[in-house]
Amino acid sequence: MSIADKLVLQRQRHLKWRALDRLELVLMILCGVLCFGFSLSVTADIITRTSGHPWLWLQEVTSTLFIYAIFIGAAVATRRNDHLYLTAISEAMHGTPRLIVEIAIRIAVLGVAACLVWYGYLNYLRGFGSFRLPSGTPIASLYAVIPISGLLIALFTVEQLVNGIINGFDHPEPADDGASASPIEAGIRRRSGP
Q1: How far is residue 132's CA from residue 62's CA, in Å, rounded to a whole number?
Q2: SS3 assignment, position 118
Q3: HSE on the CB side for 64, CA within 13 Å?
Q4: Rounded to whole angstroms, how far apart are CA atoms 183 and 93?
Q5: Taking the alpha carbons of 17, 19, 20, 21 in that order, is the dihedral positive or negative?
Q6: In Å, what is the CA distance from 68 to each residue of 65, 92, 144?
Q7: CA–CA distance, 83 with 91 (Å, rounded to integer)
Q8: Is the full-model pTM beyond 0.85?
Q9: Distance between terminal CA atoms of the chain?
Q10: Buried-most residue among 74, 132, 174, 189 (CB within 10 A)?
Q11: What integer pLDDT is reported at residue 10 of this predicted model?
Q12: Spatial distance between the Cα atoms of 148 and 115, rounded to a whole number of angstroms
């Protein structure tokens, strides 16, 4: 199993286009790099402050990595149906009621994505009037990811909406071998098993 097979989630495959699998892979790797960089910069910030020689620019790096990881992560989680999605409501339904709820949820997510694009872009433009210290970088560098995230969320939501309407939202998931079971589920299985 390649790294791509592990990072691109196969759950709810009927709602996904294969053409966007590579984008999901790139975004997942980017999220990992951003989170690793964030952890590294926080550690370096702590070490330099404790040693009495703080690197003030590390706070800028840390906040940038954190913000980018959040917004890129929100986009990737939308494709994976792990974020901005009300699964408990829709999964309890079947047939037409589920179709209506699934469409309504995705329309709401599209509304959120549109707000991210529009207001994120406005903040990005306004960000050229404010600067981060000590580097003097325009604060727009922080806001640039917001409309990008909104566009990705909209793309992934449209993908799910089109495929859900064509293929149906209600598809049984293939049986799992238990490899991804939560610790609680695994404990219950061990106690109730042979």
Answers
A1: 13
A2: helix
A3: 17
A4: 27
A5: positive
A6: 5, 34, 9
A7: 15
A8: no
A9: 30
A10: 74
A11: 77
A12: 12
